[in-house]
């Protein structure tokens, strides 16, 4: 019988590999081939994981605690106050091809606007959800009276309850001689304060917040420049080249005149908007007071009218009018709500009470 090659080797006494061992060697060779990646094939899973680990992380990849810390540093400037350091004006008609930004820079200090981090609220859904409430309640705004409702509805939605994430400061840029601004509706501002007492309202003369104003008219005939020329303190050629250097002095003098003669009531008005009498706040929140208006139309700037309109059929009206005349009831209501406490020595607000659908009277 013919012998196979393996049989011959056994006869000659040479060791032979078993069939099982041969299969194991073949599997090992195949596994080594599998471990070596072919040219142009995908990287192994371990290399992909390493690359992912070394990839730079973004804000959303960080733990929530780290993101909150970053949000803490991304806070807007919060030291705006008065007309001298007013919040840059938000104007819904700018930023649309007219050369001005809707979110302007401060004109006098050349500092950034009060909305430096607004863009962070518009990056992605996660950051918007986390950071937008923080940005809103730390923000400061200045708007013309007619745009306050537009701003609130844009950022807080229609039917806002004014109790969540309201701005820290709302400045009203007021020009009583402008069309429609001699009769202002204060109702929404009072409801916002009643729901969010931390929100501060401040009226500032719009004329004084502008880079150009009536005080510029005095620069052509500056008495301070004339005195300096007369006493040889200023060279007339240098003055003609550089212009009048007394811009701020004229502006402050104009401000003193304007605040004393035309806007003496603004301090009382600010105190009225911040009035914290418990009964008064309850009337605002419960809609017992349905409308409050400021009227400066008659030119009595020292004592403008504030008309408070009460809901017809409310308990306040029925209880007061049962025993007293409308005039006496109005006087008692204003005294009970301590509304006269907001008046100052320079100016006062003249309060009137009105009933919806009924008679009205003033104390």
Automatic annotation (TrEMBL):
It comes from the Eukaryota. The lineage of its organism: Eukaryota, Fungi, Dikarya, Ascomycota, Pezizomycotina. This is F-box domain-containing protein. Residues 1-61 are annotated as: Disordered. It comes from Karstenula rhodostoma CBS 690.94. Residues 24-38 have a biased composition (Basic residues).
């Amino acid at each position: 019988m013919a012998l196979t090659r393996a049989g011959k080797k056994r006869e000659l006494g040479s060791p032979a590999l078993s069939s099982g061992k041969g299969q194991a060697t073949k599997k090992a060779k195949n596994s080594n081939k599998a471990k070596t990646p072919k040219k142009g094939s995908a990287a192994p899973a371990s290399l992909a994981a390493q690359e992912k680990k070394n990839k730079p992380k973004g804000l959303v990849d960080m733990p929530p605690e780290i993101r909150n810390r970053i949000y803490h540093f991304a806070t807007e400037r919060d030291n705006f106050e008065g007309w001298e350091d007013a919040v840059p004006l938000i104007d819904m008609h700018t930023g649309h091809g007219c050369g001005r930004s809707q979110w302007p820079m401060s004109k006098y200090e050349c500092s950034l606007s009060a909305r430096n981090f607004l863009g962070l609220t518009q990056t992605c859904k996660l950051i918007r959800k986390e950071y937008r409430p923080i940005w809103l309640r730390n923000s400061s705004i200045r708007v013309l009276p007619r745009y306050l409702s537009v701003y609130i509805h844009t950022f807080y939605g229609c039917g806002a309850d004014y109790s969540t994430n309201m701005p820290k400061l709302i400045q009203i840029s007021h020009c009583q001689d402008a069309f429609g601004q001699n009769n202002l509706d204060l109702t929404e501002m009072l409801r916002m304060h009643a729901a969010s007492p931390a929100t501060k309202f401040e009226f500032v003369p719009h004329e004084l917040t502008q880079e150009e104003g009536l005080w510029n008219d005095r620069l052509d005939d500056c008495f301070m420049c004339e005195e300096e020329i007369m006493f040889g303190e200023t060279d007339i050629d240098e003055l003609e080249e550089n212009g009048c250097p007394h811009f701020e002095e004229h502006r402050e003098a104009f401000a003193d005149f304007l605040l004393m003669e035309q806007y003496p009531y603004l301090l009382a008005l600010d105190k009225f908007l911040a009035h914290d009498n418990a009964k008064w706040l309850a009337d605002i929140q419960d809609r017992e007071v349905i409308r409050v208006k400021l009227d400066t139309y008659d030119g009595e700037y020292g004592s403008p009218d504030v008309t408070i309109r009460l809901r017809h059929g409310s308990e306040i009206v029925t209880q007061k009018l049962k025993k007293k005349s409308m005039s006496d009831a109005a006087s008692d209501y204003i005294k009970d709500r301590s509304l006269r406490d907001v008046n100052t020595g320079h100016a006062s607000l003249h309060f009137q009470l009105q009933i919806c659908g009924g008679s009205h009277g003033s104390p």
